[in-house]
Amino acid sequence: MNRLFGAKNTGPKPTLNSAISNVDTHIETLDVKLAKLNAELTTYQQRMAKMRDGPGKSALKQKALKLLQRRKQYESQRSQYESQSWNMEQASMLQDNLKNVMTTVDAMKTTNKTLKQQYGKIDIDKIERMQDEMQDLLEVGNEIQESLGRAYDVPEDVDEAELDAELEALGQEAEFEAAAGVGEGEMPSFMQDEVAPPQFVDEPPETGKVKEAAG
What we know:
about 75% helix; disordered C terminus; elongated
């Protein structure tokens, strides 16, 4: 029964790559045969060129014609194999492109699903509130910096006329001190404090007491 209807093939199914490899092997085999035929034809042509017309040359010519006929068959068969190989290569490239497209589509689906899950967890209102809180905190920080940078006991509005008058008065007082005989190394009165600094210099010891302590 198996001889009549055939048995089910349980082996692995052929692939495009294996089919292309098989066809390329046939093409290589035909190339070897064609090279051998071309070598024989070259030998026959050389021999016939040296022979005179006659039965021997005619017989050799018939052999050469048979070789030419066989070469044409091989060349035709090789051309068919090349066409088959090219068609299968195109189909293989198309198959690879489709696989790449499917891989890209699957990757995009996975990425889209992940992005939806991640962005779904984000609350825009919370982000807006956080931005508002950050703005308030920055404003409070600026107010603190301004407060810390404020000068103490310095009037904000100073009358330049008053400053000029005070400076002129200081100059006149300096001239008066110079006329009164204040020395070069002495401090003017307007720069001296009202209360003199305390004197912490001890009185010098008596000479006799120092000698008794030494004796």
